């Protein structure tokens, strides 16, 4: 009879141990789920902050008075058929625009701004400007030491040409 009581005790202890182990697995799974949820929320907040900061950065770069003035002068020169300016002031204006695009392209390359923010905001103007500036870019690259000029901007243009 005592052996039967002991085997009942062992059976009960095994059942309790199984229940406790199952409970521990559930608690651990709940803890892991909660941690993953917190991490996802943190990532979402970080991604949202990056997009917000990217928008501010892109907006300020493209609405800077110097950039706007240079771009207006560049467009005026291009509209007059002056694709490769001879005047130093016009060349500097073209370079100002291209340097701004290059800086934004580099920021995308270094993953310091969200490319989609820039693309949504300025895709068509960049593609149109680049197409019209290609002869000037080529002339600049043909100068001694100019081979690598505006490559980050060009990388963006090539990528964006493939998107509708």
TrEMBL record:
Keyword Transmembrane helix among UniProt keywords: yes
Transmembrane segments: 12-33
Domain of life: Bacteria
Pfam family, one: DUF4760
Keyword terms of this UniProt record: Membrane, Transmembrane, Transmembrane helix
InterPro entries: DUF4760
Protein name as it appears in the record: DUF4760 domain-containing protein
Organism of origin: Tateyamaria omphalii
Organism lineage string: Bacteria, Pseudomonadati, Pseudomonadota, Alphaproteobacteria, Rhodobacterales
